[in-house]
Design goal:
The complex is a heterodimer of chains A (310) and B (151).
Chain A lengths: L16 H18 L12 E6 L4 H13 L3 E4 L2 H10 L2 H9 L4 E6 L4 H7 L5 E6 L5 H15 L6 E5 L6 H10 L5 E5 L8 H9 L4 E4 L2 H4 L5 E4 L10 H7 L18 E3 L20 H19 L5
Parallel strand pairs in A: 1-2, 1-3, 3-4, 5-6, 5-8, 6-7, 8-9
Chain B lengths: L11 E8 L3 H8 L9 E9 L3 E9 L5 H4 L10 E6 L2 E7 L5 E3 L20 E6 L4 E4 L5 E2 L8
Antiparallel strand pairs in B: 1-3, 1-4, 2-3, 4-5, 6-7, 7-8, 8-9
The chains are: A alpha/beta (310), B mainly beta (151).
């Protein structure tokens, strides 16, 4: 689609349902290439800069893999150079410098709004790979893709988001994205970690059926998708407070006994105790596939912004 | 006839119906500080028929641009602007809420990129006019307590 050429990928809210479907379909076509079963050199001669101002091995590797699977190349600076840039140079200057080395820029930065700022200082397309507690749109695309691909569509799905819904940015972005589809949402969180008010208000304003509960067991039998997140220790200054909520929700085979056959269990990983290893061998476990899907989804986005056909 | 605490001005701009206590913030938004060349009168806590109490700002010998004055709608949405010429109200405007507020507010999120030493101005989208809801265009956070974040 011409509409994608040169486009920034900064926030999932910049994309319509139609845009999302273009990406999902393109990602599907990328799967055999991402697996190495098919070869594709459509981005040969293109260079992607990956600017990781904070570490994220998974996201960085999947961008590198995506670019290289399509025949393109990647330039990156390591953590030491990144820290020296952080000390001395403004992000605006770094971006102006990097612009001359590459055709597109991937940025991960500890401050919210960094990717949007970066996009203002370069003509090159900028892809946000996570800015502080803000946006991480390629993660949302891969979550959507895993649901879409796993069920053959998103419409009609009964989806529960479980765990730390207050601080978990992936669940906020995913909620906004899902509001473009005909879904039924359930938010399951312990007290104090519930979905922020503005996200709940947005869901309600879109006329999406919404259930808010603390009880996972009660809602599980009705679900098509169970998306569980880790409760992050670093969010709790007091270890006792953390201990109180950690392990509130745990997906194991006992919990999944009476579920729908096609239930898809997702987790952005890394997991701690949220999903028992015994679940890994069930057909419900899709979280490793979800991690793999980061590659075809990022291939699709790169291909589209470089003007490739969907 | 009412007893006027400040005499009418001959030429200039009168900003009326400012919410009580906001007059100094209005001056701050307009960039009017001590280094002026004409008289600026500030009336705080004046009885108002409409809303109980109000503030008024009078700037002599200067006609402020009504469009520029729209930025004060963020803190004084019901303000009226009177352009005075030879003791008469020559023009009367109400303020209109702008679509965006650029460079006049600081983002309340300390981790927002606009709060670091980057060469950018803050920018907020007006998501709702009443009640006033502003969202940072960089970090997407809603700004709470708008008057406290005037730069």
């Amino acid at each position: 689609m011409g509409g994608f050429t040169g486009r920034d990928v900064l926030s999932i809210s910049d994309f319509s349902r139609k845009d999302m479907e273009v990406v999902l379909k393109a990602a599907k076509k990328m799967v055999p290439i991402a697996r190495g079963e098919k070869s594709n050199r459509s981005l040969e001669g293109k260079i992607l800069s990956t600017l990781f101002f904070e570490p994220s091995t998974r996201t960085r590797l999947s961008f590198e893999s995506a670019m290289k699977r399509l025949g393109g190349d990647v330039v990156a600076f390591g953590p030491i150079e990144a820290s020296s840039i952080v000390k001395g140079e403004t992000l605006a200057d770094t971006i102006r410098m990097v612009e001359s080395y590459s055709d597109a820029i991937v940025i991960r930065h500890p401050q919210e709004g960094a990717a949007r700022l970066a996009a203002e200082f370069t003509e090159r397309p900028v892809i946000n790979a996570g800015d502080g507690a803000g946006q991480h749109p390629t993660q949302t695309f891969l979550d959507l893709f895993t649901i879409w691909n796993g069920r053959g569509g998103i419409d009609g799905a009964k989806i529960a988001l479980v765990g730390d819904l207050k601080y978990g940015r992936t669940v906020h972005s995913l909620t906004y994205a899902l509001c473009n589809f005909e879904v039924d949402l359930t938010f399951v969180a312990p007290p104090g970690l519930q979905m922020p008010r503005e996200v709940v208000e947005h869901v309600r304003s879109q006329g999406i059926p919404l259930t808010i509960t603390e009880d996972l067991t009660k809602v599980v039998p009705e679900l098509d998708v169970l998306y569980i997140t880790r409760i992050q220790r670093e969010r709790f200054p007091d270890p006792q407070e953390y201990a109180k909520v950690a392990g509130t929700y745990r997906v194991d085979n006992a919990l999944l006994r009476d579920t729908r056959k096609g239930l898809v269990v997702l987790h952005p990983l890394p997991r701690i105790d949220e999903i028992a290893p015994e679940v890994d061998d069930t057909p419900h476990a899709r979280y490793f596939e979800q991690a793999f899907n980061g590659v075809p989804v990022r291939m699709a986005l790169l291909s589209l912004i470089f003007g490739g056909a969907p | 006839m009412r007893d006027l605490k400040v005499t009418p001005i001959k030429n200039g701009t009168v900003i009326d119906h400012i919410p009580s206590g906001m007059a100094l913030k209005v001056l701050q938004v307009l960039g009017i500080s001590g280094n002026v060349t004409s008289t600026v009168s500030v009336l705080i806590h004046v009885p108002s028929a409409k809303r109980g109490w109000k503030d008024i700002v009078k700037v002599e010998d200067r006609e402020l641009n009504p469009k520029e004055l729209n930025t004060i709608a963020l803190i004084a949405p019901d303000a009226t602007i009177n352009i005075i010429r030879n003791y008469n109200v020559a023009e009367k405007h109400t303020v209109a809420m702008p679509e965006r507020a650029v460079g006049i507010l600081r983002c309340g999120n300390p981790n927002c990129i606009t709060n670091s030493r980057e060469p950018v101005e803050s920018a907020f989208l007006v998501r709702s006019k009443s009640p006033l809801r502003l969202v940072c265009q960089y970090c997407d956070r809603e700004l709470e307590d708008v008057p406290a974040h005037i730069t």
